[in-house]
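Listing S7. Sequence submitted for prediction.
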Amino acid sequence: MTLKVVLLVNIVLGCAQAVISGILRTDRESNQFPGPDPYLVGGEIVTDRFFPSVVSLQINKRHVCGGVILQEDAILTAASCIQGDYASSIQVVEGSNQLDVGGTEHKGHEKFPHPGYDIEKSWKNNIAILKLETPIKFRWGVVPVKLPEAGAEIEPGTTASAVGWGSQAAGENATNDLYKVDLPIVDLNVCNETYHPYSLNVFDNEICAGGVEGEGTCDGDTGGPLFIDNEIVGIASWGKPCAEESFPTVFMKVSHYVDWIQETLDSH
């Protein structure tokens, strides 16, 4: 499986066709960078319920983004995945590694994109919480995600695992099976040097991972998790499709948002 990386730009769940394709295109650098929707390229099919917090966000029964369970009535995902649509038009499917088999569906109820989310500033703060209409029943293979400590940092070179149903190549449909791919954490300065020529910025509240040819994120992986030792450290945001050498995927650094997550859950 390959985790393909695409820049998560103007596409939102409200733009049905764009979101379904999982690729957003910007007008920067001759459309070289698609918008919100990385997908996994390279890697391997996940067997058993090794990632029990991972969910599929769908519109009209079609996978558009990934996410993880925060609590029985709340999902953590990317702001670009819920922007522009009614929360009730989004379905969250939990409990299955296959999109066409099993799983329990929950309708979205209320959405909370980060107040600092800004498409124009390289999708800064691309993180959101989606509350559900019906609660998830925790059981074997379905549990909430483990959050990191607030402010925790990760050393470059550390291996992390990206997980999702994203397509294996730009423009293709989502894969039916859940995939995971192991990616090295990339130094933030190196990541910034890679994207600055394209007028894109990587911020301190983000993590870069990948940049190895044939392994990375792409369509349909936006909003999906990056794990280290079964703890979520990142939410897939944007990148250059797909799995191109020297172009890491950019993830929201979850440790930077732990306080915001808790405050949002407590107040809604």
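Caption to Listing S7: primary sequence and predicted structure tokens for the chain studied. DSSP finds four helices and 15 strands in the chain. Residues 1-268 form a domain with the Thrombin, subunit H fold (CATH 2.40.10.10).
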